[in-house]
Design goal:
The complex is a heterodimer of chains A (345) and B (186).
Chain A (H helix, E strand, L loop, with lengths): L2 H22 L2 H11 L3 H19 L8 H10 L5 E4 L15 H21 L6 E4 L6 E4 L5 E4 L4 E6 L4 E13 L8 E4 L3 E5 L3 E6 L3 E8 L1 E6 L11 E5 L3 E5 L4 E4 L4 H4 L6 E8 H11 L4 E5 L7 E7 L3 H8 L5 E6 L2 E6 L2
Parallel strand pairs in A: 6-7, 16-19
Antiparallel strand pairs in A: 1-17, 2-5, 3-4, 4-6, 5-6, 6-9, 7-8, 8-11, 9-10, 10-13, 11-12, 13-14, 15-17, 18-19
Helix pairs in contact in A: 1-3
Chain B lengths: L4 E4 L2 E4 L4 H18 L8 H9 L4 H6 L1 H20 L10 H10 L3 H18 L4 H12 L4 H8 L3 H28 L2
Antiparallel strand pairs in B: 1-2
Classes of the chains: A alpha+beta (345), B mainly alpha (186).
Chain lengths: 345, 186
């Protein structure tokens, strides 16, 4: 799929999503919608097309065209999501990442110029462009070099482009980078735990509190543990190829999956989240990243004690609560804006 | 419709969500034709976009952005039709009504196009994931509220909303691919 095609698809989904959001959203959502519309004529175009399509859909005579009964039967027979509790295991207990004189004035000015020069070269004088997303928000950003960044919910990215480098700092959250080829300017993504360097490729970076996960969709990247390290050939570097995923802990420990399901790593672009033997507290954190309300909260459940696998709509924390309610030793309490999952006493 | 109206170019623009319904026919026909046969219609998006950006009163804009957008789009489309007829006039409150009357009496070609579009839409619906299709059938086909559709299907209300969101986007992409493919074979 071409990059333009990906952008088109994303814009179509975004337009459709706005239409849904506006049905129940308040001033804040409408203001964000106006900002989105004002970003590009394409957004206006896409939104109007989606509205026209919805109207046409409403006018369509659907009676007897599809077997509604069997669709309803399938829906009621199927589990709300593929979901299977995993036995608490030690293997699954994942590491928690884990001044009178002219000469003096001249000297001070000289030192100042040198410092300014150094800072300029390092880019420290320029905070760069900062992009953030709120809970549940996703956005695509086209950078001046033609690269495209898809920023997932609750994420912050700072972009600083220089003559010889393209530096981006993913302070928190997750982003998918589709990098425009420029061999003379390496594209580097810095997180607290690692630096990922690419020339022209596509990769996903998820910066968690204690670790960073990098999944390579196309091409190849080099990774160095630490936020300031530069990935050059050497012992501390790690090359990651397409189809591979690597996790760098804050301790510097590196965990590599050679045959990773990288499609799973970017399922968030379709607002789907997939868990694989994931600790319940991490499942809850992930849902809360996408939903302002209701928030999920755990009570009296020890971290690492329960692990789950399954695929969910990111906007539907109720589906998780509904499934957990089938667990004998768990109770689900619903409060305004919050779902509490607790151990039964 | 609410009493909350905004004035633009001397035309009362309903701020309620029914604005699209009121200004709909000409705009709707233009948008569908643009979607299906883009080469046959002038692309007025840039003009719509620029007029949208010119809006200074943000509070008013945020109060009902869709109604404002529909209003602009309807005016731009209407003006374009008039220009086509070499009969440029100042837009007034009766313009849209007259235009819609004109467009309501669709030609045989327009009717054939409309039927073709509905057939394509039905074909595209059949390609949707079954849960997405179910959400469309319940909400759009059976005129159920999201809550009623959730109750009937066993999904949550949010899931229904998400399925509908995905369904609309997928339908648009399926149809676009189909129509582009069809044009390239003409």
């Amino acid at each position: 799929m071409t990059l333009q095609r990906q952008i088109d698809q994303l814009t179509t989904h975004r337009a459709s999503e706005w239409l849904e959001t506006l049905k129940s959203g308040g001033d804040r959502e409408r203001a964000a919608f106006v900002e989105w519309l004002a970003e590009s004529p394409r957004h206006v175009s896409e939104l109007l097309s989606i509205i026209a399509l919805e109207k046409e859909l409403r006018a369509l005579d659907l009676d007897g065209r599809f077997d509604l009964k069997s669709l309803l039967a399938e829906a009621s027979a199927a589990p709300v999501a593929e979901f299977r509790p995993a036995l608490p295991s030690t293997a699954a207990a994942k590491r928690r990442r884990t001044s009178v004189m002219r000469w003096a004035t001249g000297l001070a000015a000289g030192i100042g110029a040198v410092v300014v020069g150094i800072l300029y070269v390092r880019g420290d004088l320029f905070p760069g462009q900062i992009y953030t997303t709120a809970i549940g928000e996703q956005r695509s950003i086209e950078l001046v070099d033609g690269s495209v960044v898809y920023l997932n919910a609750q994420s912050t990215l700072r972009v600083r482009f220089h003559e010889r480098t393209r530096d981006l700092e993913l302070t928190s959250g997750e982003a998918l980078f589709n990098v425009a080829h420029d061999a003379s300017r390496p594209f580097r993504v810095h997180t607290r735990d690692a630096v990922v360097q690419a020339v022209g490729t596509e990769f996903n970076v998820y910066a968690r509190t204690a670790s960073t996960t990098v999944a390579v969709i196309e091409g190849r990247v080099r990774i160095a543990a630490g936020s300031d390290a530069l990935p050059v050939s050497g012992a501390s570097d790690t090359a990651v190829s397409a189809g591979e995923e690597i996790e760098i802990e804050s301790t510097g420990k590196i965990d590599r999956k050679v045959h990773a399901d990288v499609a799973r790593a970017v399922a968030w672009r379709q607002r789907r989240i997939i868990f694989d033997e994931t600790a319940l507290e991490d499942v809850v954190t992930e849902f809360n990243r996408y939903n302002q309300s209701p928030k999920l909260r755990l009570e009296d459940i020890a971290p690492g004690s329960r692990h789950y696998s399954g695929e969910f709509e990111a906007n539907d924390p109720e589906s998780l609560a509904a499934l957990l309610s089938r667990e004998q030793d768990l109770a689900i309490d619903r409060h305004p804006g919050e779902i509490v999952i607790r151990a039964r006493r | 419709m609410t009493d909350e109206n905004v004035k633009t170019k001397g035309v009362a623009m309903p701020a309620a969500a029914t604005a699209f319904e009121q200004y709909g026919p000409a705009l709707h026909r233009y948008l569908l034709r643009r979607l299906r046969r883009p080469e046959d219609v002038p692309d007025l998006t840039q003009e719509i976009f620029e007029r949208f950006l010119k809006k200074k009163d943000r509070a008013e804009l945020i109060r009902n952005p869709l109604a404002y957008l529909y209003g602009i789009a309807s005016h731009v489309v209407s003006e374009a039709h008039y220009e086509e007829q070499q009969n440029r006039v100042t837009c007034d409150s009766e313009l849209l009504t007259r235009l819609d009357d004109r467009f309501d009496s669709a030609s045989p070609d327009q009717l054939a196009e409309q039927l073709g579009l509905q057939r394509d839409l039905l074909d595209a619906l059949a390609l949707l994931p079954r849960n997405h299709l179910l959400a469309v059938l319940l909400v759009e086909g059976q005129d159920m509220s999201y809550e009623e559709a959730a109750q009937a299907s066993g999904f949550t209300r949010n899931t229904i909303a998400t399925y509908l969101m995905h369904a609309r986007a997928k339908l648009k992409l399926i149809l676009q691919d189909y129509w582009v493919g069809k044009d390239s074979h003409r």
